[in-house]
């Protein structure tokens, strides 16, 4: 495998970076908002599931006493 000089490597990186399609500011903000919304929905879902399981376990423990 051929060795690449640091200068040549930087040039290759710049060339490849120029090929990337970067998201617009609007796309970035919309993606961030969607992440916050989905995280909140999942947090509420798992809070509900955890509460239900806690109630079931508490009821079972009361029966065992």
What does it look like?
- The chain has 65 residues and is mostly helical.
- Helix content is 82%, strand content 0%.
- The protein is built from 2 helices and no strands.
- The protein has helices spanning 6-18, 25-64.
- The mean pLDDT is 95.
Topology:
Elements: H1 6-18, H2 25-64
Summarize the structure.
The protein is an all-alpha fold and 65 residues long. It has helices at residues 6-18, 25-64.
DSSP helix fraction: over 70%
- Poorly predicted regions: none
**Helix/strand/pairing category:** mainly alpha
What's the number of extended β-strand segments?
A: 0
Supply Rg.
26 Å
Average pLDDT works out at: 95
The total of helices stands at: 2
Task: Give the strand content.
Answer: under 5%
Order of helix and strand elements from N to C terminus: HH
Distance between the termini: 72 Å
Outline: elongated
Please summarize the sheet with the most strands.
none
Protein name: Protein translocase subunit SecE
Membrane topology: Single-pass membrane protein
Keywords: Cell membrane, Membrane, Protein transport, Translocation, Transmembrane, Transmembrane helix, Transport
Organism: Sphingomonas albertensis
């Amino acid at each position: 495998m051929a060795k690449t000089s640091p200068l040549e490597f930087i040039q290759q990186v710049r060339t490849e970076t120029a090929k990337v399609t970067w998201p617009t500011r609007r796309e970035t903000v919309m993606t961030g908002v969607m992440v916050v919304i989905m995280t909140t929905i999942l947090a509420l879902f798992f809070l509900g599931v955890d509460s239900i399981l806690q109630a079931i376990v508490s009821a079972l423990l009361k029966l065992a006493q």
